[in-house]
Amino acid sequence: MFPENTFPGWTSHDAFLANMQFRKSHYRDIVRLAVVTDSILLTEVTKIVSNLVDAQVKTYPASEFEDALQWLKTGIGA
To answer: Which residue intervals of 1-78 are DSSP H helices?
Structure first.
């Protein structure tokens, strides 16, 4: 899950590259991806990203954090 208000970002180029390498190595392990945001821009970006990954991707407003978490949990072991 990527809650917008707690996303740490990257403090350096090396941290960004390490994060991208991890994602490249494990992207097939991700079945569902929930983006929790009230940002219209991030909601639209999520629509684009959902077409580029095999995982199910959903966007939730910040007020529905618990719903997003529950949706993620229902995908465990599915």
So the answer is: 13-26, 40-50, 65-74
What b/e string do you get for 55-69 counting C-beta neighbours within 10 Å, with b at 16 or more? bebbbbeeeeeeebe
How do the pLDDT tens digits run along the chain, 78 residues long? 555 555 555 566 677 677 667 767 777 777 888 889 898 888 888 888 888 888 888 999 999 999 999 999 987 765
Comparing CA positions, the residue from 73, 5, 76 lying closest to residue 37 is: 5
pTM score: 0.67
Contact 64, 36 (CB under 8 A): yes
**What number of residues does the chain have?**
78
